[in-house]
Amino acid sequence: MTQTTTRFPDGFLWGASTAAHQIEGNNVNSDWWRKEHDPAARIQEPSLDACDSYHRWEQDMDLLARLGFTDYRFSVEWARIEPVPGTFSRAEIAHYRRMVEGAQARGLRPMVTLHHFTVPRWFEDLGGWTADGAVELFARYVEGCAPVIAEGVRHVCTINEPNMIAVMAGAARAGDQGFPPAGLPTPDEETTHAVIAAHRAAVEAVRAINSDIQVGWTIANQVYQALPGADEIAAAYRHPREDVFIEAARGDDWIGVQSYTRTEIGAEGPIPAPPDAERTLTQWEYYPAAVGHALRHTAEVIGPDMPLIVTENGIATDDDTRRVDYYTGALSEVASALEDGLNVHGYLAWSALDNYEWGSYKPTFGLIAVDPVTFERTAKPSAVWLGGLGRSRRLPRVTE
């Protein structure tokens, strides 16, 4: 064993990510708000005030900047910006513009996500992504975001995890019977085509706003690992759930890689993790190496020249020492990818804050704890450690 130090490149994005609905609170015009308050949906708990980051975003950015992070990925909420069809809220657009300028003022480079799982109620009522004219409606919304992103925003994400949008649509069409013990439901093919078309329209709209913006989207990488003799089965399983969305990024300026764990594939398909495997609060297998596999697979599919950005990676745990261990392993994988010549441009942890994880506050992914009553923010030791790496750009590693 030898001790080495990896230096991340100058300009490397070093930050944390959030999503509007998960931290803002009171997104009353969104489809998720309605779902959270529908007994038939059986949501464990509603988002309500969330982290109150709609009002406390300055505190969040102050903390991230003080900790040493240089980048902050956050999303804008379509249901706030366009609460009814064709009516754009000047006040909400100004709010998100203040967030962009606030990030810049603190030395944080803003990465803006235009869609992170939630849509306006009226869009869902029309039929969502597969409705007639949905692509044009999304492009109109993106054009409406011009005052937010036109200046001072280098990276824009059009749609977060489109493959999960298609998977959830597939589950809904199948009667929403829940996820299998391992792996994912079959994505809805019509939704797959729709979100890819919406992405391409959004890319054109963003480039028309400012051709200097680097635009892409982010893919949920499940790290499908074939057991001996199951390579073809794994490839057939992976393609509609992941690879088709990676391939759709050709022509973009970058692609976001998001990973948390792995899925092993055998002769009969996905295999649950063994009973003695360490589990996170989401019941996923503890597997820090996932991000390295995800980066390498994405580069293999999209080609070596496409810039890769880890836009989400992290662990849900109430033991912060395990969070540090997880990030240590994950960052070692990122460093190895860089050393092997992969075109990795950044690493953004999930999540900046303990937040609303789509039905529950129990899975704590955050680098920063949030008191649910007072909303006081407290940086965890993992945040201090990870932010310090952002300052030094140096990662001590033990290699064989």
Automatic annotation (TrEMBL):
UniProt keyword Hydrolase present: yes
GO terms assigned for molecular function: beta-glucosidase activity
Keyword Ubl conjugation (UniProt): no
One GO term (biological process): carbohydrate catabolic process
Gene Ontology CC terms, in alphabetical order: cytosol
Keywords from the UniProt entry: Glycosidase, Hydrolase
Gene3D superfamilies, sorted: Glycosidases (3.20.20.80)
Family to which the UniProt record says this protein belongs: Belongs to the glycosyl hydrolase 1 family.
Protein name: Glycoside hydrolase family protein
Species: Streptomyces sparsogenes DSM 40356
